[in-house]
Design goal:
21% strand; binds S-adenosylmethionine; 10 helices; Rossmann fold; S-adenosyl-L-methionine-dependent methyltransferases; alpha/beta; 258 residues; single chain
């Protein structure tokens, strides 16, 4: 965990949410703050839920995970269903929905889409900030009449490091598919990244241990490991996949472990 994460401030100006803010601070190790920090990221709890904000000028807008409405709801309804590249990469087939360990959960978008298609997904995230944002989004999803049923059945969140957890899991609990989507260093082709990704890149930096994570994933996935990469980026750990599925900007490298 980076130093910036350890000192992340959590602000709420709503008296009714003080207790909830206190519990979150204790659970994730945030410092409760009563005023805006200097030029830094902080978490804000308000009536809309938990958000990541930045107090400085000309920085990305607030980041809040929303599984119920907005872009993810649109993708869930019109994103190509079980034929979309992500679903094919995970090995979803008629009558077969693999269990998935999403080892790099991030904003939970890929894991959420796989769950919406029928997979049981463990969202594993090591950043306390992201894990707190995911927990908040899941609580709002569970309260939503339309998606509550399958969200409760198919999605669970684990705050921890997949490199450690995947090695400790009992054999029978290991997932059929381990899914990796590590942060990569910002490059020319990523100049126009969305505000959420920009915030993640600034806050967390690249995942420098993802080569090692691939090796651990290969030992624990019962069927396959799927690595999501920008289309023109090299293979993780220079390891040639068995096959890949390429879409406009993204490549899914598939390593069969059966
Ligand atoms: C690019 S984001 C993933 C985005 C995600 N696929 C989505 O759809 O929103 C990568 C995330 O993986 C997390 N991460 C990287 N290595 C990890 C590990 N070993 N265990 C748990 N989380 C990890 C990082 O903290 C970061 O939040």
């Amino acid at each position: 965990m980076s130093t910036s994460q350890l000192h992340t401030g959590l602000l709420t100006t709503n008296i009714a949410l003080q207790q909830q803010a206190q519990s979150l601070a204790e659970q994730f190790g945030f410092e409760l703050i009563s005023e805006l920090p200097g030029n830094a990221y902080y978490l804000c709890l308000n009536e809309q839920g938990l958000q990541l904000r930045h107090a400085g000028p000309s920085v990305p807008g607030p980041v809040r995970i929303d599984f119920v409405s907005g872009a993810l709801a649109h993708r869930r309804r019109y994103g190509g269903g079980r034929g979309q590249p992500l679903a094919r990469a995970a090995g979803i087939k008629p009558g077969f929905n693999p269990t998935v360990w999403d080892a790099t959960a991030g904003l939970g978008r890929d894991g959420f889409i796989l769950a919406s298609l029928g997979c049981r997904v463990t969202l594993c995230e090591r950043s306390a900030i992201l894990a707190a944002l995911l927990q908040d989004a899941l609580q709002r999803a569970v309260a939503d009449a339309e998606i509550s049923g399958w969200v409760c059945r198919r999605l669970r969140l684990v705050h921890g490091d997949s490199s450690e957890l995947l090695q400790n899991l009992a054999e029978q609990r290991q997932a059929e598919v381990v899914y990796l989507d590590p942060m990569y260093p910002p490059g020319k082709e990523h100049v126009l990244v969305k505000k959420e990704i920009r915030a993640l890149q600034e806050l967390l930096g690249p995942d420098r241990d993802s080569d090692a994570l691939l090796e651990i994933a290969l030992k624990s996935a019962r069927r396959r490991v799927v690595v999501k990469r920008p289309r023109r980026t090299g293979w993780l750990n220079d390891k040639k996949p068995d096959t890949c599925i390429v879409s406009k900007k993204t490549r899914y490298d598939i390593y069969v472990t059966l």
